[in-house]
Amino acid sequence: MQQGITIGNVSQASGVKVPTIRYYEQIGLLPSPPRTEGNRRSYDEGDLERLTFIRHSRELGFEIDEIRTLLSLQDQPNVSCEDADAIASKHLADVKLKIASLTALQHELERMVEGCSHGRVETCKVIDILADHGKCRFHGE
Amino acid sequence: MQQGITIGNVSQASGVKVPTIRYYEQIGLLPSPPRTEGNRRSYDEGDLERLTFIRHSRELGFEIDEIRTLLSLQDQPNVSCEDADAIASKHLADVKLKIASLTALQHELERMVEGCSHGRVETCKVIDILADHGKCRFHGE
DNA sequence: CGTACATCCTCTAGTGACTAGAGGAGCAAG
DNA sequence: CTTGCTCCTCTAGTCACTAGAGGATGTACG
Fold first, then answer.
1. Across the interface, do A85 and B59 touch by the CB < 8 Å criterion?
2. With a cut of 50, which residues of chain B have pLDDT below it?
3. How many whole angstroms separate alpha carbon A11 and alpha carbon A47?
4. Among B99, B114, B137, B139, which residue's Cα sits nearest to residue A96?
5. Banded pLDDT at A46 (limits 50, 70, 90)
């Protein structure tokens, strides 16, 4: 009888919080594990890998539905990976846009903070720039 | 009798959607405007500026509560702008972190998509990298 | 003047991806 | 045996909106 992994341990090992694991089970992203006599969830190595996969995908900014597709692809490895490729490519385009937008934002914020003379709001560029859109160089996203 | 601006026009002019404007009013971010005889909201130039300020701040990634603080600072211009400065500075730090994280992610995704041989999932790096955290160079945020 | 249609109103409920809390049961150590 | 930790289920809350129902009003045209 090989002992299963508790939810607390699988949480620690995967980096996914306990309530989040239960949430993933609830939305069908993670299969319901068997229970012990005392009704505790009992996970195995496969669950741990799946959870790590999920966490990592979330960190990379994939949405739950995308992860669902990715996981189903992983489950049947003889189909073409064009779908997975498409998801990642689409995501890559998004990420590039986001970086461009955030970089513009960074310059804008730097300009704001540098411009702030630490005096009164009347002369503070932070407020000024936010109030008057014409003075702003940020036009991202 | 100067005619007010309709919610639709103030929406167009500010770039904030109509339901969002009503939502902002509901949460007290935008003051309740006077109504016409027919119970329509009647905005003025000041409201338009405030909405533009809000939209721009949201675009820059400020949270509603931060905008609330910013707006209250704008309303009383003889206090120090250190608070506004602090908010913007904190936000700038966040943005820099996010950019670094997203850039790492970009490289990761590029590596994924380039590595995909357009064959079967078994040899697809997209799945591979997501499944095995050790193969991944992304450790952001 | 009538009628079509756009715009407006309020209200409730839904979204995504969790997070928090209540209220209780099981389990391991001292 | 008791203390305290982890676990269980369930409901409700978060943020910043968004969608939709069901109805009133305003405007343009014939």
1. no
2. 1, 140-141
3. 11
4. B99
5. very high
pLDDT at B105: 75
Sequence ranges of the domains in chain B: 1-79, 84-141
**Alpha carbon of B39: minimum distance to chain A alpha carbons (Å):** 29
List, as ranges, residues 100-129 from B with C-beta within 8 Å of A: 102-103, 105-106, 108-110, 112-113, 116, 118-124, 126-127
Task: Please answer whether residues B105 and B84 qualify as being in contact, where contact means their C-beta atoms are separated by less than 8 angstroms.
Answer: no
Residue A56, CB, less than 7 Å from strand C? no
**Residue B34, min C-alpha distance to chain A (Å):** 23
Give buried/exposed letters for B68-85 (b at 16+ CB in 10 A, else e): eebbebbeeeeeebebbb
What is d(CA A52, CA A71) in angstroms, rounded to the nearest whole number? 12
Tell me if B109 sits within 8 A of A90, measured CB to CB. Answer: no
What 3-state class would DSSP assign to A30? coil
What is the dihedral sign for C-alpha B9, B45, B20, A92?
positive
Q: Does domain B1-79 have CATH number 1.10.1660.10?
A: yes
* Range B126-129, long-range pairs (CB < 8 A, 24+ positions): B126/A70, B126/A81, B126/A84, B126/A85, B126/A87, B126/A88, B127/A70, B127/A73, B127/A74, B127/A81, B127/A84
Residue A141: the pLDDT is 40
User: HSE-up of A74 (CA within 13 Å, CB side)?
Assistant: 19
